[in-house]
Write a structure and sequence with these properties.
This protein is 8% helix and 24% strand. It is mostly beta strands. The chain has one domain.
């Protein structure tokens, strides 16, 4: 059964230029995420919420990008021949974080027809 979730509305913003990247690998894992307000933009189960699919936030993607997580390497976040966006604004004019073909987070302006979302659901086990 799909779990009810709480999603911040409006979506939060991450200032791309404020991020410090692990090992200098820009777009993989920010080391200072806990120091910015967007760290709270984590999709959570909420019994009062709505059972639904949702777009991952920048913070959801980072928190799933651990050795034990769903995205333990950049390659596991890649999209093969396309890219996908998160619900998080990059702080630049109308830009959202896009996961490029190599699985790296990147700000991008506008939406291409080859773009999409990677819907997620939380399932009760």
């Amino acid at each position: 059964m799909v779990q009810p979730v709480s999603i911040p509305d409006p979506a939060l913003t991450v200032d791309w230029h404020s991020l410090i990247w692990l090992g200098g690998e820009v777009g993989w894992l920010p080391t200072n995420l806990d120091n910015i307000p967007t760290a709270a933009d984590v999709t959570t189960v909420n019994p009062s919420g709505t059972p639904q699919a949702f777009a991952l936030s920048f913070t959801d993607v980072v928190r799933l990008s651990t050795p034990e997580g769903l995205f333990s390497t950049p390659r596991l976040r890649d999209t093969r021949s396309s890219h996908w966006w998160t619900r998080t604004n990059s702080g630049l004019t109308h830009e959202f974080y896009i996961l490029r073909i190599n699985g790296i987070l990147h700000p991008h302006q506008g939406v291409a027809f080859t773009s999409g979302v990677r819907p997620a659901i939380i399932i009760h086990q």
